[in-house]
Known about the structure:
- The protein is of the alpha/beta class.
- 39% of the residues lie in helices and 15% in strands.
- It is built from 18 helices and 13 strands.
- A 5-stranded mixed sheet has the order 3-4-5-6-7, with helices on one face. The chain has a 4-stranded antiparallel sheet with strand order 8-13-10-11, with no helix packed on it.
Amino acid sequence: MSSQVEDLTPEQWDALENLKSAVADVEELAGMDDRYFLRWLKARKFHLAKAEDMLRKHIETRKKYKLDTILTDYKPNEVEHPLQENLTDISTIHLLYLQVLEKYFPGGAMGEDRDGHPVWYDNFNYDFKGLHYSVRNEDIVLCTLYRTELMLKLGRDSPAKLREKLKDLEELTDKDDYYFLRFLRIRNFNVNLAQSMIKASLGVRRRLQVDTLLEEYDPPPVLKECFPGGFFGEDREGHPVWYDNFGNLDAKGLYHSVKRDEFMKYKFHQGEQLVKLCEESSARRGKHIETFVMVIDLKNLSLTRQFYWPGIRYIIEVITMLEPNYPDTTGEILLINIPSRGMYNQFFRLVEKFMDDKTRNKITLLCDLDELKKYISPDQLPAAYGGTRYEPDPYCTKYINTGRLVPEEYYFRRELERGEEEAERVHLGVWRNKSHTVSYQVEKPATILKWEIQSLEYDIAFGLTLEDGLNPPLEIVPLSRVNSHLYLVTGSHTCEKTGKCEQK
Length: 504
């Protein structure tokens, strides 16, 4: 079993691989994931020899005290108190020691904190003299190790706790612990926050019908022809690689030609591709793969093409919405064909607003395409980037869209000029801190109400209610703020009853 770790420098990655190789002869470590080995390296500040020595001593301690079975075999509270006359028997004396520890050695695990972490209470009311004269040192060590194993087990049980909280959701019945761990890690193992995050993700998946995207979704021509990016090959560890020709991105064209929900479906389709590729790679390599490598090509980066602020905000905000639905799946981010320092600084200032420290630490600037081969073997790398693959050309455009300018016939206004479905349209101005209500009379059931909202400079609040004159107003779309200044907000609702619909 292997699990991807993040935020490591190339030297730390080397130390991790070297540690795994150095202890490959230890049978007890077979199947341990990268995070396990990383704990020992961090404890010794990535000093390989010290981490190896510490780990080998730990394995010897586990054997000596039989820690693999200590949680089931070490139960002093279930042992009857031995009689005084039997104290000549060594095993009976040992049981008495355990009774003393159970009764007089303070501390215990109980409950969780607000984030779902197990809590250990220690009153520090130690009777050091009494323990010294009544308990062997070895048994104190054993009791302490038992408590440590107990806390580790309680921490490892987080996926099971999360699964139990969500047991009523049919969509999760076939999910393994790795699925729940991704949400737990991104929420620092806060079970309650991870639960809310999964529920929100499932709501989005239902609305966009994500489960059927791989089989049924056909992206609109503007995205298939003009939006750069695509998965191709794997890195040396088996992680899928996404190539993004950001330098060919037409931010303005996409902003004016792709509706938000359509763009979200397109990106979720890519997210589902990632899940499938990771599953296939895991099966081939016999280890768990759940993250991907991103190669961002900045060739052709220009002020006029990419630095259209509304378009960049629109695109990046939609992309960042993927993180709560595919959490902890981004691995290395490799930037190639770096432009001049001034141009790169402008690019980074543009996108860093949307990055947290964790994502920022994953970025590596490669000054030479040959450096890509440290991460990706040549037979998995497009020829344009120093590899040997042609699919069918050096950029492997069978799989990777290199991107281009969006033709103006794809712009929204062109659609309207060609005669989009005629309907009553309302154009209005609303002052700051003011509101406006638009009413429609629904004459017959099954009437479809559609809306497209776009504002010039600021976001707005939007909601939809239905009144039938008999019952209190029914809230169809809760009043909430929408970023209509960033993208065209679209939606629809089928009115099952007649009455007056109000948009506010």
